[in-house]
TrEMBL record:
It catalyses: O-phospho-L-homoserine + H2O = L-threonine + phosphate. It is an enzyme of class 4 (lyase). Keywords: Amino-acid biosynthesis, Lyase, Pyridoxal phosphate, Threonine biosynthesis. SUPFAM superfamilies: Tryptophan synthase beta subunit-like PLP-dependent enzymes (SSF53686). Pyridoxal 5'-phosphate binds at N137, T373. It comes from the Archaea. One of its GO terms (biological process) is L-serine catabolic process. Residues 73-374 form the Tryptophan synthase beta chain-like PALP domain. Its EC number is 4.2.3.1. This is Threonine synthase. Catalyzes the gamma-elimination of phosphate from L-phosphohomoserine and the beta-addition of water to produce L-threonine.
Length: 393
């Protein structure tokens, strides 16, 4: 309703919204949806009931690119709680430490925010069958929303994807194709099939960004528009981090906040393409080797939103680094002792927060929000291996 156009995040080329593109035809980079922000600012100004409404993805409908709110596909995603962890903040020496627990979403991960918007758009474009490549959680999420919308869903996942996530997708009725050894190979296969077999392609594209930016909206909303010093996010493809930065900037543009947080991103050791480029100043290069990891959800060799992550971190004066499997496992156990069970990939954000505090990048008075992206029940087998010593971290 308030959306304006598509803009390429790399070369700046502009396209109309109805163009049905996945990437920039000129340079191949990801696209971005822009809005008429003045109109949004006018709409929400002094709208007290809106401010009092509890957070959930579609509360922020004016920032979402859909034409008919009566036809949205929703399972009541978002509205996940923001927990303050007082004991842990004392132990680790933060001013305030919050965890945004995305495991509380309908399928157990933040991906539902994006899937709700993407599948709504798929219906707008009259799709009948959709396809997605995934490390597991996006597959389960698209399967659930596709089922809700009555669409046929095919998921393409690499070997080694946690069985819990595949079982979940199959229970939602999806067709599962295991292809290749890494997410990057599964993605190439899904994109090829989409072209050749007339699927609507879902995944880390601009409409997903729109849904996933609501993680950023909700954090600010839940802190009553007090901006935290840091938001720390695990990086797989980098789309969630990019989206969160977009979301907080949009709240800034319409005058809901007067400040911006600094954004930090965590990659897992062995899958550090973005961190390497950030530290050396060189272009992002695909990592060559597939190495064993406990963080399968973020084991991405060439992150599609890598350049956008670097831009977000540069603009926000933020931070990027890798964490080890050991640091990640320890962080997961710290969260467990606070009553929060996350999958290994999600624990990288707290592992990085701890590392940044130890290195003095985060100050002792600062407020830190860690995004815990997915539920621990999503990957029980990996935690079993860590606990029994079968995966030596
Ligand atoms: C998808 C996913 C990520 C990574 O998000 P990106 O948008 O790919 O960077 C992190 N953690 C979990 C649990 C995920 O499912
Ligand atoms: Zn371009």
């Amino acid at each position: 309703m308030f959306e304006a156009k598509l803009v390429c995040t790399h070369c700046g080329a502009e396209y109309p919204l109805a163009s049905g593109l996945y990437k920039c035809p000129k340079c191949g980079a990801p696209l971005d949806v822009t809005y008429h922000y003045d109109d949004i600012a006018n709409l929400i100004e002094d709208d007290d009931p809106w401010f009092r409404e509890s957070p959930h993805v579609w509360k922020y409908w004016m920032f979402l690119p859909v034409s008919n709110l009566k036809r949205i596909v929703t399972l009541n995603e978002g509205g996940t709680r923001l927990y303050r962890l007082k004991r842990l903040e004392e132990k680790l020496g933060f001013g305030k430490l919050y965890v945004k627990y995305e495991g509380e979403n309908p399928t157990g991960a933040f991906k539902d925010r994006g899937s709700s918007v993407e599948i709504t758009k798929a219906l707008e474009f009259h799709a009948r069958k959709v396809i997605v490549a995934s490390t597991g959680n996006m597959a389960a999420s698209v399967s659930a929303y596709g089922a809700k919308a009555g669409l046929e869903v095919t998921i393409v996942v690499p070997e080694g994807t946690p069985g819990e996530k595949l079982t979940q997708a199959r229970m939602y009725g999806a067709k599962v194709e295991v292809f290749g050894k890494t997410y990057d190979e599964a993605l190439a296969e899904a994109e090829r099939k989409a072209m050749e077999e007339d699927y609507y392609l879902t995944g880390n594209y601009h409409y997903r960004v729109e849904g996933q930016k609501t993680t950023g909206f909700e954090i600010l909303d839940q802190l009553r528009y007090n901006v935290p010093d840091w938001i720390i996010v695990p990086i797989g493809a980098g789309t969630h981090l990019r989206a969160i930065w977009k979301g907080v900037k949009e709240f800034y543009k319409v005058g809901l906040v007067e400040d911006l947080p600094r954004i930090a991103g965590a990659q897992i050791e062995g899958y550090d393409a973005i961190v390497r480029a950030w530290k050396t100043g060189k272009p992002i290069e695909k990592v060559q080797k597939k190495v064993p990891t406990i963080a399968s959800a973020i084991a991405v060799k060439k992150p599609v939103d890598g350049e956008n992550v670097i831009r977000a971190v540069r603009e926000s004066d933020g931070h990027l680094d890798t964490v080890t499997n050991r640091e990640t496992a320890e962080a997961g156990m710290l969260l467990g002792r606070e009553g929060i069970f996350v999958e290994p990939s999600s624990a990288t954000a707290l592992a990085l927060a701890k590392k940044m505090r130890e290195e003095g990048v985060i100050d002792k008075d600062e407020t830190v929000v860690v995004v815990a992206t997915g539920h621990g029940l999503k990957d029980v087998k990996t935690w079993e291996k860590v606990l029994s010593g079968d995966f030596v971290v």
